[in-house]
Design brief:
two-stranded antiparallel sheet, 3 helices, binds zinc ion
């Protein structure tokens, strides 16, 4: 009996599927150069922001960085995700 997999790989599959669909729709690429120039970086940014395996790196007190693994630059670990969002929103409002 296979256990239900956790959702960590689903995101990768989604991106892969997206790339395949884009590849099919955008073939041959030179007819859709602008679409590629927009979509490829968009997919890349989405991956970096939400799916890339990275570390939380939230600065805890005493300048220590949280080293827990997370998926995506914009997300924090279970404890810091909310704080990271708050910090980013505050920064966004200030600028
Ligand atoms: Zn953290």
């Amino acid at each position: 009996m296979a256990k239900r997999r956790r959702g960590t790989k689903a995101g990768d599959l989604l991106v892969l599927l997206w790339v395949v669909v884009l590849g099919v729709l955008g073939y041959p690429p030179h007819e859709h150069l602008i679409a590629w120039m927009v979509l490829v970086p968009a997919v890349g940014l989405f991956w970096v922001a939400f799916l890339m395996p990275t570390k939380c790196t939230y600065s805890t007190q005493r300048d220590k960085l949280c080293g827990r693994g997370v998926r995506g630059k914009l997300r924090g670990c279970r404890d810091h995700g909310r704080w990271r969002r708050d910090t980013m929103l505050a920064r966004h409002r200030a600028s």
